[in-house]
Amino acid sequence: MMAETTNTIDVTINKDVLVIGCGTQGLEAAEAVAAKGYKVVLVDDADLPAPAANAIEVMANTKVESLAGLAGDFRTCLANGSGRSERTFGAVVVAPRYGLAPLNEAYGLALNDKVVTMTQMEALLDDGAFKETLVQGEGKSIAFLSGFGQEGDPAATSRVLEAALTVQQAGNSRAYVYANNVKVGARGLERLFTQGRNEGVVCFKPLEKPAIEQGDTLKIVINDPVVREDVELEPDYIVVEEAVVAGPENLAFAEILRIDTDLDGFIPSNNVHRFPANSNREGIFVASQPADAANVALRVAELLDNGVRTVAKNAAVVDENKCTICLTCYRCCPHGAIFWENGIAAISPVACQGCGICASECPMDAIQIGDFTDEALTADIQEAVASVSGTPSIVAFCCQNSALEAGEAAKAFDAELPQGFRMVQVPCAGKVDVEFIMKAFVEGADGVMVAACHEGNCKAERGNTFAKWRVEEIQKRLETIGLSKDRLIFTTIASNMAEEFSMKVRMFAEQL
Amino acid sequence: MNSQSGKVMVVGGGIAGLTAAWELARQNVSVELVEKSCFLGGHSIGYTCKATDTCQQCGACNVEKMLKNVVGEPLINVRLRTEVSSLDRSKGFKVSLKKSSDDMAEGLILKGFSRHNSPLHVKGKGVTDEAPEGALGIEEMGSEGEIDVDAVILATGFTPFDAELKGTYGYGKWENVITGLEFENIVRENAGIVRPSDGKRPEKVAFIQCVGSRDERLGNLWCSEVCCPYAMRMAGTIKHDNPDAEVSIFYIDVQNTGKEFPVYYEKIRENVRFVRTIPVDIYPIENDSLKLRHMAEDEGSPSFEEFDMVVLSVGIMPGADSKTVSETFDTPLTVDGFLDDSVDSGVFVAGTAAGPGTIAGSMAGAGKIAFDAVKYLGGAK
Ligand code: SF4
Ligand code: SF4
Ligand code: SF4
Ligand code: SF4
Questions:
Q1: Intrachain domains B7-157+319-380 and B160-316 with the same fold
Q2: Which ligand sits nearest to residue B45's alpha carbon?
Q3: Residues A447, A420: contact at Cβ < 8 Å?
Q4: Which residues contact residue A226 at a Cβ distance below 8 angstroms, ignoring those fewer than 6 apart?
Q5: Closest Cα partner for A483 from A448, A509, A451, A435?
Q6: Chain B interface, mutation test: which of A183, A187, A413, most B Cβ atoms within 10 Å?
Q7: Chain centre distance of CA B158
Q8: What is the CA radius of gyration of chain B?
Q9: C or N terminus of chain B, fewer CB within 10 Å?
């Protein structure tokens, strides 16, 4: 491997940046990217406030209809009242806005002028006339519901605590908070919570959701776990919490941009390799948290630089004589790096992450990966088996993002490893072809191990899944040819787990 | 665009310092990374993977990855076992460095987790035994002298709460009462869940939350943010390792782990018992096990329960040296004693030095600080 010096080429890329969505994060991201010296186009399908930086071109009421191309050369179609325009961008930033959904139904409540959402209460508290009623006479009693409709979060808790404190401080009024888990896990919230309690905000933490009657008057009944008896309250207002939901445009963006979402429909997927602002596609970044704008700008600057990128010529190359345009590679590339050119599949050296999944899945063996060509890997396997001095001989295909790191650390710290153990580096477990595993057996390995990242931790999102399928497939094959399927195992491991790696290898050796 | 030049000193080589240094280097800024201990990685390099069948997104492996990035980066000059003794701000930043005197590891051979970080092994003072090949003597390590930099990022980290201050839990007295951080290290080092006294797999484990945090009596009016996530993830790891194990988490309020929390929380509650109360005290019983006394909310009278091991979810406290750092760099402290990150003066604060935060949060925050520092360099010229 790495036998030949890698050839590089300079690719000229587009330096403009498209920012989609102009909520707080979108605006900040647009400004941070512009501050790095790039031209920014900010679009939103609603009206837009004008951003401060003048390097930003604003397109209000505009939809991103489609996106083709790849990092450095995204071609989009932007549509608005005055028609459609085709624009090209080097990078795209998505800053989806979130929706708030009142959770009154979770409590069996209908919204009216006494049962209001958190947003409505915040507006009321900003309104002088309403605030006046809090001061006059006996004031009002206001009950806040928090965390029984859905597990809350610090942002929601912070809104409740702020509002409750405002009510309490208004004069004659009283604030009651019915909380499940008080989400104080953010800067300053425990202090705010304590201040509220010290100023008289009453906080109940019943173990069950409060029972609420909504008639002419409102009535909340809970069983208080501290005094262990029922506590009733007839508040003037009930404020229901709101869930933060991924708006429908979240999924639409994900589909148009071909990026993964998490279980709740939020962009990006729940994978630590995306920290803090990446998506699974090179050149598409996500701004959803306060620190994201700066991180997005850093990533954009790293990618676009001064408009020229030096990339490996042979990162992943399609053999035009072999490709039959079956679309397999296009579908399985986790980074959306494959496109069509002159009637065959082509791979963008800017967007490709070199995982090799496409190469292993291509039915025509038409794709070769830079430092991990079939030839190079075959040589590595031969060498691994040949260099073994003890038995059993074990060849472990190790993903360079996880298992290889763990294995190298195990060696460096003298963790116990069987004598006949050898590692073969692969860019991702998804690059472990059926042929490679068979080759290792043919060369005389007693056992073969495919070591990948844990599910949900694969940098290529699904490389570990592909590897697992292939291992299961071969295990069946081994049995039909009369070999024990236990000679082949699939395992997952994190890069920081040297001892665990050594233990897994030793257990495998014993079993052999 | 990436034409920025200049030099920034990053103080502290934990995840925040590593990330800040790496991001600066990505922007063509050279970095002096000063770390007072003999190794990079800070607390978090010792954390264990908590994956069950699936990754639990704890971020521990990101630290390993970042460490590898930093050590391979020519624009970052790493100075281990080095501290800043003084700072002269009359012209840019003139920094005086000294060898850190903290801990001479008398008679010990230290081992760093950082495979890519040389040295791997360090011989403490007075070690004559044969040390592994390539081991460095601690006295040879460390930098002295003066360097000039254009900005400073303080990433001096946190100090875990000293569990001995909660005397009734018997930490330091009973072997199987350990802190969450120690548990992380134990699992990583042993590749499995074992308890300290006999190396056996515990069948009944309790986690006690908020040890040292959210404690008005101690004056610690903050939530440490990381201890609910790590306790729940470790509880999940224990159940994965041994489905018959019984795990209880004693808590005040459960904080979120991150994305997809509602689904995660529902699942973990199927396997782990959550008890809303903070236990009163812990006594040793036979077999090195422990008896824990608590007032379960729904019972009203004290209950006693036995456990093989108790994990104290200690929180994030201001760095032990935050006062000194604050004086040296003329950076104010917050009411809670962390470094105040709101002052814009060419001295920036990243990571848990400024207050509690997760690995993910520290990384994102450090990226932001690197961005701000580069902006500052641009403006200063
Ligand atoms: S998988 Fe192979 S044959 Fe199919 S389109 Fe891709 S390169 Fe061509
Ligand atoms: S190597 Fe991986 S990232 Fe590159 S084109 Fe193939 S599947 Fe996509
Ligand atoms: S160390 Fe944490 S983030 Fe990494 S694979 Fe393990 S559980 Fe996932
Ligand atoms: S994260 Fe959980 S255990 Fe830690 S201080 Fe906050 S509430 Fe307590």
A1: yes
A2: 3
A3: no
A4: B297
A5: A448
A6: A187
A7: 7
A8: 22
A9: C
pLDDT grade, residue A2 (50/70/90)? Answer: very low
Ligand 1 pocket check for A318: Cβ under 6 Å: yes
B81 lines ligand 3 (CB under 6 A): no
| Nearest-angstrom CA–CA distance, A473 and A428 | 18
Q: Contact at 8 Å (CB) between B36 and B102? A: yes
Residues of A in contact with B232 (CB under 8 A): none
Query: How far is residue A180 from each of residues A151, A222, A229, A254, measured CA to CA in Å?
Result: 8, 12, 18, 33
pLDDT of B298 higher than 70 = no
Which CATH fold topology does B160-316 show?
FAD/NAD(P)-binding domain (3.50.50)
B365 touching A (Cβ < 8 Å): yes
The C-alpha atoms of residue A502 and residue A192 are separated, in whole angstroms, by 48
Identify whether B318 is preceded by a cis peptide bond (ω within 30 of 0).
no
pLDDT at B232 over 50: yes
Among candidates B292, B288, B267, B291, which has minimal Cα distance to B279? B292
Q: Residue A367: left if φ>0, alpha if ψ -120 to 50, beta else—which one?
A: beta
pLDDT digits (tens, 9 = 90+) for B323-351: 999 999 999 999 999 999 887 789 999 99
Distance from CA of A306 to the nearest CA of B (A): 6
Q: What is the mean pLDDT of residues A44-58?
A: 76
Q: B294 near B279, Cβ under 8 Å?
A: yes
Contact yes or no for A378/A397 (Cβ under 8 A): no
Inform me whether the C-beta atom of residue A508 falls under 8 Å from chain B C-beta atoms: no
For residues A86 and A15, give the distance between their C-alpha atoms in angstroms, rounded to a whole number: 16
pLDDT tens readout for residues B75-121: 999 999 999 999 998 878 999 999 987 667 777 778 775 544 445 78
Mean pLDDT along residues A200-214 = 94
Question: For residues B35 and A258, what is the distance between their CA atoms, to the nearest angstrom?
Answer: 42
The answer on pLDDT for B381 being more than 50 is no
Q: Thinking of the domain B7-157+319-380, which architecture would CATH place it in?
A: 3-Layer(bba) Sandwich (3.50)
Q: pLDDT for A242-262, tens place per residue?
A: 998 877 777 788 888 988 888
Residue B2 has pLDDT above 50, yes or no: no
Write the secondary structure of A367-410 as one string of H (helix), E (strand) and C (coil).
EEEHHHCHHHHHHHHHHHHHCCCCCCCEEEEEECCCHHHHHHHH
pLDDT tens column, A380-399 = 999 998 887 777 899 999 99
Is pLDDT at A53 greater than 80 in this prediction? no
Ligand 1 centroid, distance to A442 Cα (angstroms): 27
- What residue segments make up the domains of chain B, in order of their start? 7-157+319-380, 160-316
CA angle A221, A224, A229 (to 5 degrees): 85
Size of chain A in residues: 512
Contact status, residue B47 vs residue B188, Cβ threshold 8 Å? yes
Closest ligand relative to A333 C-alpha? 2
Distance, CA of A210 to CA of A219 (rounded, Å)? 10
What is the arithmetic mean of pLDDT over A152-161? 95
Phi-psi region of A325 (alpha: psi -120 to 50; beta: other; left: phi over 0): left
Which pLDDT does position A330 carry in this prediction? 93
Contact at CB, A207 and B360, closer than 8 angstroms = no
> Which residues in chain B are contacts of A453 at CB distance < 8 A?
55
Predicted local confidence at residue A1, as pLDDT? 36
Tokens representing A208 are 């069950």
Residue A242's beta-bridge partner residues? A102
